[in-house]
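Model it.
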Amino acid sequence: MRIGIAGITTSGKSTLAKALTNVFKGAHCCVDDFYYTQDFPMMTFKGKTIIDWETPNCIHWDKFEEYCERQTADIVFIDSYLLFYSKKVADSLDAVIILQYQPEDFQEALARRIRRFSNQAVPSDYVIHPDASETHWEAAYFTEIAWKFAMDYPQYREPKDLTKPILRLKAVNPLGDNINKAINFVNGLLMNSV
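Modeled.
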């Protein structure tokens, strides 16, 4: 069984995938392990040329697809912020767990991103002074690039024509609650597959 876990950055998808992999003694495939290590796609942001981490073009899709395909565990959790970009990966899924942020969850998502990046609070002046520190820059990048990309391209997390079993979880819910709901969902899938 292959279960996709979709969500934008900081939604908790990798943490959830690792927890489920541990509980169900499965395999975990994470798209984050397949970023290009050279020849990155570039973009201009705030007058600087930077790596475009949000585009599907920054991932070695052929290697990710091959890696996912090679997994032989009874249950495989495939974790990606672009889960449905690859038709091959999408077609292999038996079910999907989607960690969702709503537009009004932006401040929580930004705070998580900055805590993960620098273990600090979001600088109050990052919009006016994005160059003041790396944390300011990261907050500006998340706001203007990562969050915007996620809001503009929801089809990479949940296509409109998706017919597989879906569990939708609020990314802002307590992690333990989301893990328990996901465990129950997977147990239900396993019971129905016998």
